[in-house]
Amino acid sequence: KHYDRTLRLYDKSLEDKFQLKHYIVNNIDTAIENGYIKVYYQPVVSSKTGCICGLEALARWQDPNYGLLSPGSFIEILEEYRQIYKLDKYIIEEVCRDYRRSIDNKLPFPPVSLNFSRLDFELCDIVGYLCETVEKYDVPKQFIDIEITESALTDQQDFLPNAIKNLRSFGYKVWLDDFGSGYSSLNVLKDYHFDVLKIDMKFLTDFSSNEKARPILENIVNLSKQLSMLSLTEGVETKEQFEFLENIGCDRVQGYLFSKPVPLETLREKISAGELK
Ligand code: C2E
Ligand code: CA
Ligand code: CA
Ligand code: CA
User: Fold this and answer.
1) Model pTM?
2) What is the Cα–Cα distance from 124 to 144, expressed in whole angstroms?
């Protein structure tokens, strides 16, 4: 009897997952057309000055049936069904539009980093699309950076090194995201050039209790200096973590200590209220 019940519960959650999966795949076009996909921005802060020196664009899906969906519930599915490029193209356009609107209204707009999926390069000419869109909205290229995750680079495929070279030759900065979360980190640093090394937040999860976290972080920061990359640690949640990172010379920090990802208007309100500078 007991067994029966757990089995049913298990089936139910599987069924929900299955339904959401199909909902996502079947509704991505509509969601884009109807403006349900939103760009949230999370500030990147300079350790030296404490000022915002950039924003990361993070996708949200404000769905009329499911409510606010986080990337955790749709990115993987869109990748699995090879639809992710639709979302990433839309985010490019939204960010460029936000930039143009801000500049036209004489509002400041720091550089923005966008997350690209490895599949974007395979499924469409994402670099070409980026160049066209940037031109259409007259956005200076130095305002757009591209974040690529480490796992995206572990597949031995030819188009990705070329894509990275192209991006850089067109004037975009390329960041290595989630550094240290995969298994080929150091190789990747040898074979590609990145402008910013984004250190995975896993190193901070047990920061106070795990004595090994500090020397590891310090060495990654030093390594990035020696390889002429800026270092950025993400997932900074406490003052203790921030002070340590500041002390070891980590150039930039990002995390809930400063701000969660929020809509652009909310970010502006926080700046006006003096919560961020
Ligand atoms: P990511 O690029 O590594 O982004 C960092 C994630 O950590 C974000 O989750 C952010 O909200 C969260 N985060 C930031 N600061 C903190 C903190 O202090 N503590 C904790 N616990 N979390 C923090 P989010 O927005 O849910 O995005 C998850 C992932 O989805 C991203 O990881 C990225 O890989 C992917 N993603 C998000 N937007 C896009 C997009 O437009 N395109 C693509 N291809 N992927 C995206
Ligand atoms: Ca990222
Ligand atoms: Ca990351
Ligand atoms: Ca990630």
Assistant:
1) 0.93
2) 19
